[in-house]
Amino acid sequence: MITASRADRKPDAHIVGRAPSRALDVLLLALPVDQADLETLQLFEDYFLLAVPADDPLPERSRVCTRDVDARRLILLEEGHCLRDQALAYCSRRSVTDTGLGATSLGTIMQMVASGYGVTLVPEVAVDAEVRDERIKLLRFAEPKPSRTVGLAWRSTSARKTDFAALGRVFVEALKASKPRIASPPTIAREKIEPDPSRPRYFLTESAVGYPMR
Predict the structure, then answer these.
(1) Higher confidence at residue 27 or residue 213?
(2) If you write DSSP's letter for every residue of 59-103 in order, what string do you get?
(3) Domains of the chain by residue range
(4) Best CATH choice for the domain 2-177 from the list 3.40.190.290, 3.30.70.330, 3.40.50.300, 3.40.50.720
(5) What contacts 77, CB < 8 A, 6 or more positions away?
(6) Nearest residue to 125 (alpha-carbon basis) of 179, 166, 83
(7) pLDDT per position as a tens digit, 120-161
(8) 17: Cβ–Cβ under 8 A, 6 or more apart, which residues?
(9) CA distance 94 to 122
(10) pTM
């Protein structure tokens, strides 16, 4: 059995603990894993984005930092979820008593952000599945960008290590083939037709067709 340790499922510690008992064959989750009898394989870096209400004054093309997060109400998942710990690590917060808001799933948090209750950090790989509300806009972080390492984990005694390594390559190739919806269609179109989008050479029409500047 293959499972992904998602933020809106049971806490990661519960899922990881089932691997040595042979209840699960391989896990897709955030690394590192504190389990001596598991082997792991790093796959990719998953960068975080800041999800804010669409009417937030921060420009969509701006690069945000810890100060921007601290200035807003941060909404987090409940205790036991790795996304909560990762968000707190980036913000250098030891507790969230100053936020007063939490939820049991990332989907619920997205609804709260859309309704203007606060902001949250969302993994880039979750954008297509979790961020579909036009009342939310996504902002990238300035360097050093917060991220997590995603990989596979399996029992060290498993005879299917070669299969799991092949599975990891499938995940990586699938990720390369899909680009999360982070920018508006005109922005995406400009990035496709411009050698250097920061120095535009084309006008963009409403249908996102480029015409050279005279």
Answers:
(1) 27
(2) -TT-EE-HHHHHTSPBPEEPTT-HHHHHHHHHHT-S--TTT--EE
(3) 2-177, 184-214
(4) 3.40.190.290
(5) 7, 83, 84, 102, 103, 104, 105, 106, 109
(6) 179
(7) 999 998 998 889 899 999 999 999 999 999 999 999 999 999
(8) 35
(9) 19
(10) 0.71
Give the residue, 77 or 5, on which the prediction is more confident: 77
Residue 161: C-alpha distances to residues 17, 18, 38, 125 (Å): 19, 18, 11, 25
Number of H helices, E strands in the chain: 7, 11
Q: Which residue has the higher pLDDT, 36 or 147?
A: 147
Q: Give the integer Cα–Cα distance in Å for 8 and 23.
A: 20
Q: Which sign, positive or negative, has the C-alpha torsion 43, 48, 53, 58?
A: negative
pLDDT higher than threshold 80 for residue 8: no
Which has more pLDDT, 203 or 108? 108
Degrees to nearest 5, angle at CA 106 with 11 and 167: 65
Q: Buried (b) or exposed (e) across 27-48, using 16+ Cβ within 10 A?
A: bbbbeebebeebbbbebbebeb
Residue 88, both tokens = 């707190």
pLDDT for the residue 196: 60
By 3-state DSSP, what share of the chain in percent is helix, strand and coil, each rounded to 5?
30, 25, 45
